[in-house]
Amino acid sequence: MSKRSRKRIKNWFIYIFVLFIVKLLRNLSRIGAIKLMRLMGSIVFRLAKREREKTIRHLTWAFGDKKTEQQIERLAKQVFLHFSTVAVDAIRMPLVLKEGIDKYVRTDNLPKLDKLLAVGKGAIIITGHFGNWELLGAYLAQCGYPLKVVGTSAYDNRLDKMIVETRNLAGYENIARGKGTREIVRHLRSKGFLGILIDQDTKVDGVFVNFFKRPAHTAVGPVVLAEKFNVPIIPVFIRLNRNLLYEIEAFDPIVCDNTGDPEKDLISNTQKCSDAYEQIISRYPSQWVWMHERWKKQPQEAEL
Known about the structure:
By secondary structure, this protein is α/β, with parallel strands linked by helices. It has one domain. The protein has helices at residues 3-25, 30-47, 49-63, 69-91, 93-99, 111-118, 133-142, 157-170, 181-189, 221-229, 262-283, 299-302; strands spanning 105-106, 123-127, 147-151, 173-176, 193-197, 206-211, 214-219, 233-240, 246-250. Helix 3 crosses helix 4 (69-91). It is globular. The mean pLDDT is 91.
């Protein structure tokens, strides 16, 4: 059997398994679904050696000078349990919307966005793979913010279609990364809100800035777009509290440097975006995707 055939069969089984999990979780109570997924998260933490080791390694890089090995390992397990938990609400999105998203999400600090909406001025909203970013987009859309998000397409077209349809159901539109330049321009010119996640090492234009004291290749898209369309960059994050309710926190708009040195300003302003991510992750470290290879690309490699 060829490598391509094996990959096709593997992807088919993954797709069927995802369909099964979606149907199962949407037919369980929320608490029942969370208990089931946290059990699965515990099992995955033990069995997925590669992902577990990456998570522990990255947490050690970030917090090794403050936490013991035992604390790091416990934190790594909490990361797996967190994403097992928030996956429930992402998968049960149709039920969340039907019951009313206010039942799940709390916030009292969105006046910055409200003001922009009132005066008809758009914004770049940066967030990360933190908390439950899918629920964040749904909440903003349900509150009436004209939101579109830039997202990387899933490796499987069938899974990507499921994700996009769920986002559309929630009231916001997905723009495929690298394929929707015209749509991004049109949306910002119409004073819309554009959501972008730049906390991962992806194949986009970027610069190296510090992230937990290590160089990390970071997308410059938000900074470039903010300057081009004269809109603010506002970091907004959603975290899961111990009572299993979510809370949204919007930071102050990033004050971008404009020294007359475009290259220097681009790096400085991208660093400010990265600092916003680092700030919220430092406060709630179990709610970020530490299994991602955030520092995979390094400056010396980029020069080769």
